[in-house]
């Protein structure tokens, strides 16, 4: 524990004595007795291999790495591949401690603050908050009753008793606030109304806003008009999406893919998009309804594909052969917007994500802007 706290302090994730003490006090292995790591098995199948903290000194030490540890798989997609490995999608994790430390520092809590955590998960982050603020100040919610019960047992086992509830965190905490701080360790497409209603002027909300192409962490301050205003943080990190049911993920309905229309040269390659996180975020501002996915064609060529719900798509290959070519179906304007964004981003000095502001208006509309020159992008339709 102390070694992890020292590592995070030396790396700059921990900047204060209070959070250094919390990370040095709270035992992560209590909250992550087992986890899954992705690997390719001897059959060439990508699986999640189960590890247990108590099996060996090596595994115990692995818990205290500055690494995200997947702790639960979706039971509807998980299939056992061998005695200790499964396929499937992760549904919960113990977040990278360095990311947790940075977010907690950016939350800027003070003694006496009441905090709502959305996404209890293993309970480790709630324990850190308890160590810093005391049990009575900490409230935490998660959509999964099983996760909440397990977290409650672990927290109680080391002497912590925060207020926990198994509910949809997008509805806030049952009974309401007000809270001085809200921190979410799941992603949302926009700041929920309930979070605004359960804060007071000057409260801080720290969450991952997930747009279709990319998303990022925002730190927002609420005001008396129920507006939440702030900016993307220099800290990068993504979280599993919030969901309305512990076992069900929302899937957006999309029209069938349009037939291939044409291909042409392009100055923007798949590598450009994959390499530059701030540019992907900018693309999300330009195309808030689009998705970015991997596509493999019949010849085996892997590409990055941008797609819209109306069936339009455009893709650029990730292989060296064909680099600088875009193939598209539906509207030809889709990739043109990628090129326009690339031109602007480069001409503006390739601004990082923390050069963009974010506002959630009282009526629920959201927009972002480039802080130096005020250029703005609407993320929700103006009805």
3D architecture notes:
- The protein has 383 residues and is α+β, with helices and mostly antiparallel strands.
- The protein has 3 domains: 2-94, no CATH class; 97-232, Rossmann fold, CATH 3.40.50.150; 260-347, Double Stranded RNA Binding Domain.
- The chain has helices at residues 2-10, 17-25, 28-31, 57-63, 97-107, 124-133, 145-157, 193-197, 270-275, 277-286, 333-347, and strands at residues 34-40, 46-52, 69-73, 79-82, 85-87, 90-94, 115-118, 138-142, 163-166, 179-188, 199-210, 215-222, 228-232, 260-265, 291-296, 302-307, 313-317, 325-329, 356-360, 366-370, 376-378.
- The strands form 4 sheets. It has a 10-stranded mixed beta sheet with strand order 9-8-7-10-11-12-13-19-20-21.
- A hairpin with a 5-residue loop joins strand 12 (215-222) and strand 13.
- It is globular, with a radius of gyration of 22 Å.
- The N and C termini lie far apart (52 Å).
- The relative contact order is 0.09.
- The model has no long low-confidence stretch (mean pLDDT 92).
């Amino acid at each position: 524990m102390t070694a992890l706290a020292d590592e995070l302090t030396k790396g700059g994730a921990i900047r204060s004595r209070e959070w250094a003490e919390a990370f040095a006090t709270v035992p992560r292995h209590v909250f992550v007795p087992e986890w899954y790591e992705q690997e390719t098995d001897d059959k060439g199948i990508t699986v999640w291999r189960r590890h247990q903290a108590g099996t060996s000194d090596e595994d115990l030490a692995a818990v205290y790495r500055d690494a995200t540890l997947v702790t639960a798989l979706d039971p509807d997609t998980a299939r056992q591949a061998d005695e200790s490995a499964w396929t499937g999608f992760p549904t919960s994790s113990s977040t990278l401690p360095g990311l947790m430390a940075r977010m907690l520092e950016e939350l800027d809590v003070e003694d006496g603050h009441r905090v709502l955590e959305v996404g209890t998960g293993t309970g480790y982050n709630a324990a850190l908050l308890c160590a810093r603020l005391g049990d009575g100040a900490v409230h935490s919610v998660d959509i999964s009753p099983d996760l909440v019960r397990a977290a409650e047992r672990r927290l109680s086992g080391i002497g912590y008793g925060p207020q926990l509830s198994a509910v949809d965190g997008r509805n806030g905490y049952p009974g309401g606030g007000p809270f001085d701080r809200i921190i979410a360790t799941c992603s949302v497409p926009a700041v929920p109304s309930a979070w605004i209603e359960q804060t007071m002027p000057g409260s801080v909300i720290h969450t991952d806003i997930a747009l279709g192409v990319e998303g990022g962490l925002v730190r927002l301050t609420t005001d008396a008009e129920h507006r939440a205003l702030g900016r993307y943080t220099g800290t990068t990190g993504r979280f599993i999406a919030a969901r309305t049911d512990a076992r069900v993920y929302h899937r957006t309905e999309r029209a069938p893919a349009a037939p291939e229309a044409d291909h042409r040269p392009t100055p923007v390659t798949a590598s450009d998009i994959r390499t530059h996180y701030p540019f992907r975020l900018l693309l999300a501002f330009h195309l808030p309804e689009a998705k970015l996915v991997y596509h493999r064609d019949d010849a085996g060529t892997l590409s990055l594909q941008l797609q819209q719900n109306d069936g339009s798509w455009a893709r650029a290959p990730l292989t060296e052969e064909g680099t600088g070519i875009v193939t598209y179906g539906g509207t030809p304007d889709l990739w043109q917007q990628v090129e326009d964004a690339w031109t602007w981003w480069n001409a503006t000095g390739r601004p990082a994500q923390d050069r963009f502001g974010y506002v959630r208006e009282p009526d629920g509309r959201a927009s972002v802007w480039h802080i130096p020159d005020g250029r703005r992008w609407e993320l929700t339709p103006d009805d």
